[in-house]
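Why do we care about 3D structure at all? Because function follows from shape, and shape follows, mostly, from sequence. That is the central idea of this module. The next example makes it concrete: a single protein chain, its amino acid sequence, and then its structure expressed as tokens.
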Amino acid sequence: MIRDLLENGSIVDIVATFIALAMITASILCLVFIIVGGITFILSAGNEEKIKKAVHTIRFAIIGLFVTFIAFFAVSWISKLLDIPFELSFSTIVTLMQEIFAAISS
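And the structure:
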């Protein structure tokens, strides 16, 4: 999909794919930071500074995830408002993720 897109795709399709890749990356990073914050919280052993740091890490990761999805919907809304043929849906993102994981696993 990515090779065909770069060879034959329009600039709008390429931008849509890179936005999808950015959303995938942001979602994975948010998940990683939530896990790191949880492990830090578990290993804090009652230390108030470590607990506070872990809670802030988890909180900011969740806020980052919300900002990512709000930005996605804002870009979609603005493209519809300006009548730009910007086709990006969650099914496109899932298909792109499946292709990335298939390429990594093989």
